[in-house]
Amino acid sequence: MVMNKNNYRKARRRVEVSVGESVRIIRELQELSQNQLAELTGIPQSTLSGIENNRINLGVERAKVIARALKCHPAVLVFPGWDLSAESAA
């Protein structure tokens, strides 16, 4: 059987991820503790905990610092639910 893109259907989003959850997920994927990320960023561990639990807003400047430490683009942290296909259809 020849496989092409018509043999597949687009995956559906099953879970909504908050900004704080995106920070936690990426941090955990890199096997970093909050204390280790605090050392890398200079952001107190208690602030990182507040961000991950959506009690403290991430903010643009903190997003840049955390993204640099996690080696990802800040948009990955700030806009975890961004649906690019919806934008191109508009």
How do you describe this structure in short?
The chain is mainly α. It is built from six helices and no strands. The chain has a domain at 19-78: Orthogonal Bundle (434 Repressor (Amino-terminal Domain)), CATH 1.10.260.40.
General description of the model:
The protein is mainly alpha-helical and 90 residues long. The protein has a domain at 19-78: 434 Repressor (Amino-terminal Domain). Helix content is 54%, strand content 0%. The protein has six helices and no strands. It is elongated and about 50 Å long. The mean pLDDT is 87.
Report the structural category.
mainly alpha
CATH topology of the domain at 19-78: 434 Repressor (Amino-terminal Domain)
Q: Please give the CATH class of the domain at 19-78.
A: Mainly Alpha
Report the C-alpha radius of gyration, rounded: 16 Å
Query: In percent, how helical is the residue content?
Result: 40-55%
Give short descriptive properties of this protein.
90 residues; mainly alpha; 434 Repressor (Amino-terminal Domain); 6 helices; 54% helix; elongated
Write the layout of secondary structure elements.
Layout: H1 19-29, H2 34-41, H3 45-52, H4 60-70, H5 74-78, H6 84-89
